[in-house]
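User: Second chain of the day. Same drill as before.
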Amino acid sequence: MATIVEKTRIRREKGWLYFLDKRGDVSRALMAQGGGKSPKRREKVVRLGIKREDGFLYFIDKQGNVSKTKMARSTGRRKTAGKRKAAKRKTTARGRTTRRRRKTARKKTTRKTARRKPARRKTARRKPARRKTARKKTARRRARR
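Assistant: Same format as last time:
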Protein backbone atom coordinates (compact mmCIF):
# COMPACT_ATOMS: atom_id res chain seq x y z
CA MET A 1 0.00 0.00 0.00
CA ALA A 2 0.98 3.63 0.32
CA THR A 3 3.79 4.87 2.54
CA ILE A 4 3.81 8.33 4.08
CA VAL A 5 6.70 10.45 2.80
CA GLU A 6 6.01 13.68 4.74
CA LYS A 7 3.42 14.46 7.42
CA THR A 8 1.86 17.80 6.49
CA ARG A 9 -1.75 17.55 7.78
CA ILE A 10 -3.11 19.83 5.03
CA ARG A 11 -6.70 21.02 5.49
CA ARG A 12 -8.44 20.80 2.13
CA GLU A 13 -10.92 23.35 0.85
CA LYS A 14 -13.77 22.53 -1.50
CA GLY A 15 -13.25 23.31 -5.21
CA TRP A 16 -9.44 22.98 -5.11
CA LEU A 17 -7.22 20.22 -6.52
CA TYR A 18 -4.19 19.41 -4.35
CA PHE A 19 -1.07 17.89 -5.96
CA LEU A 20 2.71 17.58 -5.73
CA ASP A 21 4.32 19.92 -8.29
CA LYS A 22 7.60 19.52 -10.22
CA ARG A 23 9.71 21.01 -7.45
CA GLY A 24 8.30 18.60 -4.86
CA ASP A 25 6.10 21.15 -3.10
CA VAL A 26 2.39 20.75 -2.32
CA SER A 27 0.34 23.06 -4.55
CA ARG A 28 -3.31 23.59 -5.30
CA ALA A 29 -5.28 24.74 -8.36
CA LEU A 30 -8.89 25.77 -8.84
CA MET A 31 -10.95 22.95 -10.34
CA ALA A 32 -12.82 23.54 -13.58
CA GLN A 33 -16.61 23.51 -13.28
CA GLY A 34 -19.25 23.08 -15.93
CA GLY A 35 -16.90 21.85 -18.63
CA GLY A 36 -15.09 25.18 -18.91
CA LYS A 37 -11.41 25.82 -18.42
CA SER A 38 -10.17 26.72 -14.98
CA PRO A 39 -8.08 29.85 -14.53
CA LYS A 40 -4.34 29.14 -14.30
CA ARG A 41 -4.17 30.22 -10.69
CA ARG A 42 -1.92 27.94 -8.68
CA GLU A 43 -0.86 28.42 -5.11
CA LYS A 44 1.90 26.80 -3.12
CA VAL A 45 0.46 25.36 0.08
CA VAL A 46 3.61 23.89 1.69
CA ARG A 47 7.23 24.06 0.49
CA LEU A 48 8.81 20.61 0.97
CA GLY A 49 11.25 19.96 -1.91
CA ILE A 50 10.60 16.20 -2.04
CA LYS A 51 12.93 14.25 -4.34
CA ARG A 52 10.93 11.73 -6.35
CA GLU A 53 11.87 8.12 -7.04
CA ASP A 54 11.19 6.54 -10.43
CA GLY A 55 8.28 4.09 -10.53
CA PHE A 56 6.35 5.71 -7.69
CA LEU A 57 3.14 7.75 -7.70
CA TYR A 58 3.05 10.66 -5.24
CA PHE A 59 -0.24 12.01 -3.90
CA ILE A 60 -1.88 13.78 -0.96
CA ASP A 61 -3.88 11.24 1.09
CA LYS A 62 -7.12 11.73 3.03
CA GLN A 63 -5.32 12.86 6.16
CA GLY A 64 -3.46 15.56 4.18
CA ASN A 65 -0.04 13.85 4.20
CA VAL A 66 2.20 13.35 1.16
CA SER A 67 2.29 9.63 0.34
CA LYS A 68 3.78 7.42 -2.36
CA THR A 69 2.82 4.07 -3.84
CA LYS A 70 4.40 1.82 -6.47
CA MET A 71 2.94 2.30 -9.93
CA ALA A 72 1.28 -0.71 -11.52
CA ARG A 73 2.90 -1.24 -14.90
CA SER A 74 2.92 -4.14 -17.33
CA THR A 75 6.67 -4.55 -17.91
CA GLY A 76 6.61 -7.83 -19.85
CA ARG A 77 5.18 -6.54 -23.09
CA ARG A 78 7.31 -3.42 -23.45
CA LYS A 79 10.64 -5.20 -23.21
CA THR A 80 9.88 -7.77 -25.92
CA ALA A 81 8.40 -5.24 -28.34
CA GLY A 82 11.74 -3.49 -28.89
CA LYS A 83 13.76 -6.62 -29.65
CA ARG A 84 13.92 -8.12 -33.11
CA LYS A 85 14.94 -11.62 -34.03
CA ALA A 86 18.36 -11.87 -35.64
CA ALA A 87 18.48 -13.25 -39.19
CA LYS A 88 19.65 -16.88 -39.26
CA ARG A 89 22.99 -17.63 -40.86
CA LYS A 90 23.30 -20.32 -43.48
CA THR A 91 26.56 -22.23 -44.03
CA THR A 92 27.64 -22.76 -47.63
CA ALA A 93 29.62 -25.65 -49.10
CA ARG A 94 32.93 -23.84 -48.53
CA GLY A 95 32.22 -23.30 -44.84
CA ARG A 96 31.39 -19.60 -45.12
CA THR A 97 28.34 -18.18 -43.46
CA THR A 98 25.88 -15.96 -45.27
CA ARG A 99 22.86 -14.23 -43.92
CA ARG A 100 19.46 -15.28 -45.07
CA ARG A 101 17.29 -12.49 -46.28
CA ARG A 102 13.86 -12.25 -44.84
CA LYS A 103 11.05 -12.48 -47.30
CA THR A 104 8.45 -9.84 -46.71
CA ALA A 105 4.90 -10.85 -47.35
CA ARG A 106 3.50 -9.00 -50.32
CA LYS A 107 0.06 -7.55 -50.13
CA LYS A 108 -2.37 -8.68 -52.76
CA THR A 109 -3.36 -5.86 -55.03
CA THR A 110 -7.06 -5.49 -55.44
CA ARG A 111 -8.77 -3.49 -58.09
CA LYS A 112 -10.94 -0.73 -56.89
CA THR A 113 -14.35 -0.69 -58.47
CA ALA A 114 -16.11 2.57 -59.14
CA ARG A 115 -18.95 3.01 -56.71
CA ARG A 116 -22.12 4.81 -57.55
CA LYS A 117 -23.06 7.65 -55.30
CA PRO A 118 -26.42 7.18 -53.59
CA ALA A 119 -29.19 9.29 -55.09
CA ARG A 120 -30.10 12.35 -53.08
CA ARG A 121 -33.63 12.63 -51.87
CA LYS A 122 -35.50 15.64 -53.03
CA THR A 123 -36.80 17.68 -50.17
CA ALA A 124 -40.30 19.08 -50.39
CA ARG A 125 -40.26 22.82 -50.85
CA ARG A 126 -42.23 24.88 -48.39
CA LYS A 127 -44.74 27.31 -49.73
CA PRO A 128 -43.95 30.88 -48.77
CA ALA A 129 -46.06 32.17 -45.91
CA ARG A 130 -48.86 34.48 -46.93
CA ARG A 131 -48.75 37.97 -45.68
CA LYS A 132 -51.70 38.89 -43.53
CA THR A 133 -51.19 42.62 -43.98
CA ALA A 134 -51.59 42.37 -47.74
CA ARG A 135 -54.87 40.48 -47.32
CA LYS A 136 -56.28 43.09 -45.00
CA LYS A 137 -55.47 45.92 -47.39
CA THR A 138 -57.13 44.21 -50.34
CA ALA A 139 -60.17 43.37 -48.23
CA ARG A 140 -60.50 47.04 -47.22
CA ARG A 141 -60.22 48.19 -50.81
CA ARG A 142 -62.97 45.80 -51.91
CA ALA A 143 -65.22 46.98 -49.06
CA ARG A 144 -64.85 50.64 -50.14
CA ARG A 145 -65.97 49.97 -53.71
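The mean pLDDT is 80.

User: Great, on to the next one.
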